[in-house]
Amino acid sequence: MAKTDTALHNACVGSLLNMKAEIMTSPQHPVNPPPAGLDKKTSAILSYVLGWLTGIVFLFVGKNDPDVKFHASQSIIFFGAVTVLNVVLSIVGSFLGVLGIIFSLVSLVVGVFALVIWIMAMVQANNTGGVRAELPIVGKYIAPYADQLANSVK
Angle at which helices 66-95 and 52-61 pack, to 10 degrees? Predict the structure, then answer.
């Protein structure tokens, strides 16, 4: 009877050690849960969808994920600057009469440029899986300000 008890004991201990090893080597749960049930990639893409508006939303919705905050901050800064620039061009152009056409053309060029950056930003966010990535073309100018904005939200 003692041999059976010892064999049973060894089998149980062996099973427990195997379970402990599986638990220790299994992938850990992410430290920062995805914002609003969205994964990082989706949140990064959505940060750009409506420009600075969705940037503001995801700056706070994704406040626990530094990569999502960075994408949201880039969206706010770039598309906010484009919006302000277009408003200024429209106002100044409206006071200049015929010369205002030049301002309207510049505004059109700025809008097309913003459209290209918008598409490239969403494609890049998709391709990188939502990890931190600077905007194409203008990223080196915007990234320092995006960092400051992203780090200011706790």
Answer: 150
Do residues 55 and 48 lie in contact, with contact meaning Cβ atoms separated by under 8 Å?
yes
* CA atoms of 65 and 42, how far apart (whole Å): 13
Integer Cα distance of 97 and 103 in angstroms: 10
Question: From CA 124, how far away is CA 118, in angstroms rounded?
Answer: 10
Side-chain-side CA neighbours of residue 103 (13 Å): 16
pLDDT digits (tens, 9 = 90+) for 20-61: 445 445 455 455 555 557 889 999 999 999 999 999 999 999
CA 105 → CA 73, 86, 93, 113, distances in Å? 28, 11, 10, 12
DSSP state of 25: H
Closest CA relative to residue 43, chosen from 30, 29, 26, 60: 60
The pLDDT value recorded for residue 37 is 73
Cα angle vertex 71, ends 67, 73, to 5°?
A: 110
CB 126 within 8 A of CB 59: no
- How long, in residues, is the chain? 154
